[in-house]
Every structure is written in C-alpha cells, then in structure tokens.
Design a protein that fits this description.
By secondary structure, the chain is an alpha+beta fold. 19% of the residues lie in helices and 39% in strands. The protein has one domain (2-83). The N and C termini lie far apart (56 Å). This is Secreted protein.
Length: 94
Amino acid sequence: MYCVSTALTVAALAAGAIAFAAPVSSQCQGGWTPWGGGEYCDGYIYEDGSYDHCVSVTVLGFGGTQCNRVCPPDPANPAVPLPWQPGAFCPFRK
C-alpha cells in the first residue's frame, strides 16, 4: 500500500511540474521541471540564409548550452539543421 501511495504522489508532482512548465516564446521552444528540461532557440537570420541555433539542457541542476550557425533543414528531414559553410549560400533558404 505504501508503494502505491508513493507512486501516486510522484505522478502528481510530475504532472504539476509539466502543467507549470515555462510557456513557449516566438523564437524558443522547450519546457522545464524541477528535475531538468531543455530548450532550443533559433536566432538571427543572416543574408546567406543561415541562422543561429542554440540548444540548452539541464538535469538536476547540471547542464549547458551549445550554439552554432546552421542552414535551414532539408524539407525531407525537417528536424535536422544542415551544417553552415563559410562563404557559401544555404541550399534551403528560409
């Protein structure tokens, strides 16, 4: 019986943390809980079609952010931005 009540308490806390996660802004998307979370942001768009793409992750207070200049993704695989080559135009410009 103790295990069931503990499991229900943990589930309620997790549901509450998800319900109160940070709202999505116009250029960033993600969510945070007391135990961790993540966010990605797309920043300034340059003349060649490339843009700044940052990813942040935190787990139990530890984490970091990585930012790179990337090109828009191939429409066939929209989840993966293409690498940016200095001096070249992006093949799939926004």
